């Protein structure tokens, strides 16, 4: 079996707190599905810093910071990083598998 490269998914929210539980659930889902993924959360204020440190494939925004979507897309610029808002229902239910799927579909 060919080993796939690690997918890096960054969740972004107001303070990085509400998404930390979701990160844990996404990691569990990835592990169950045997998907190699690096998933982490960061507060919106640290996006620039994280983009310079990490090889991010996609950024998922918590619904509470959906207003920052165009701002984050601007920060990403012409890098091949997909940006989207986490599905509100999946976020509310803390459905790690569904949010993981959303990220992987974005990455393609």
UniProtKB/TrEMBL annotation:
PROSITE patterns registered for this protein in UniProt: PTS_EIIB_TYPE_3
Molecular function via GO: kinase activity; protein-N(PI)-phosphohistidine-sugar phosphotransferase activity
Domain PTS EIIB type-3: 6-108
Positions of modified residues (Phosphocysteine): 13
Gene3D superfamilies: 3.40.50.2300
SUPFAM superfamilies: PTS system IIB component-like
Pfam families: PTS_IIB (PF02302)
Isomerase in keyword set: no
GO biological process entries: phosphoenolpyruvate-dependent sugar phosphotransferase system
UniProt keyword annotations, A-Z: Kinase, Phosphoprotein, Phosphotransferase system, Sugar transport, Transferase, Transport
Protein name: PTS system, lactose cellobiose-specific IIB subunit
């Amino acid at each position: 079996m060919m080993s796939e490269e690690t997918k890096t998914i960054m969740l972004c929210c107001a303070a990085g707190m509400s998404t930390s539980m979701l990160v844990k659930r996404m990691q569990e889902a990835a592990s169950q599905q045997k998907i190699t993924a690096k998933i982490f959360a960061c507060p919106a204020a640290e996006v620039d810093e994280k983009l310079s440190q990490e090889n991010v494939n996609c950024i998922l925004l918590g619904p509470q910071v959906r207003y920052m979507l165009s701002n984050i897309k601007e920060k990403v610029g012409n890098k091949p990083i997909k940006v989207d808002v986490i599905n509100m229902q999946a976020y509310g239910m803390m459905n790690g598998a569904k949010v993981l799927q959303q990220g992987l579909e974005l990455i393609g």
